[in-house]
Structure formats: C-alpha cells, structure tokens
From TrEMBL:
The lineage of its organism: Bacteria, Bacillati, Actinomycetota, Coriobacteriia, Eggerthellales. It comes from the Bacteria. One of its GO terms (molecular function) is nucleic acid binding. InterPro entries: Alba-like_dom_sf, SpoVS. Gene3D superfamilies: Alba-like domain. Transmembrane segments: none annotated. This is Stage V sporulation protein S.
C-alpha cells in the first residue's frame, strides 16, 4: 500500500506591463483566501513593476481580515516564441495572524521562516 502526499494547489498568474495591479491584487487575494499558493510570473521591468504593485495592494485587501502575506522572488528561465527569456517569479504565501489556520506546505513555511 502506498501513500501519496497531498501538495497544495499552486496558481500561476502571468503579469504583463499592461496588467491592472488592482485586478491582479484581487486574484491574489482570492487565491490566498482559498488556500491556494500563488506564483506570479513577470518578464521585463514594466511587468515586474505591475506585479510588485499588485502584491502590495493585495496585502491591503488581506491584512484587515487577519492574513499577512510573504513574497519570495526568484528567477525562472522560460521560452517565449522559441526564445529563452528570464522571468521573475514571486511566490506569495499567507502568514496567518489572529488565529486563522494555515495551509502552507511545511517545506515552503520552513523556507519563509528563514527570512
């Protein structure tokens, strides 16, 4: 008999320089509330700018209900139209306050606690 480990769902949001930060923030907040780990991917300075603004705005949506978020940036090599590009990925995970339960994987929580 084998057991399978349940991994939390991960939603990947791709942000462009033309993305609305408020709309992306709403998506981030909704996913975090639903217990889904969020990854945001951006290619280029304008897209990274919109992504960072969205993360800040989503924090404003979540903080009043007792959910703080942590953001961990990383690089990702991706292929767009046959060309290799470097993307910035932001892993956004909840850090609950006010007694709300957690749904963050142990591995990700351990990596966030080192910050």
């Amino acid at each position: 008999m084998s057991t399978t480990e349940h991994k939390p769902d991960v939603g990947c949001l791709k942000v462009s320089s033309k993305s609305s930060p408020a709309s992306v923030a709403g998506a981030i907040a909704g996913m975090v509330k639903d217990g889904v780990s969020v990854e945001i991917q951006a290619v280029g300075a304008g897209a990274v700018n919109q992504a960072v603004k969205a993360i800040a705005i989503s924090r404003g949506f979540l903080s009043p209900i007792g959910i703080e978020i942590a953001c961990v940036p990383s690089f990702a090599d991706i292929v767009i139209d046959g060309e290799y590009r470097t993307a910035i990925r932001f892993a956004v995970d909840p850090r609950y306050t006010r007694g709300v339960g957690t749904s963050v994987s142990d591995e990700r929580r351990d990596s966030l606690s080192d910050l």
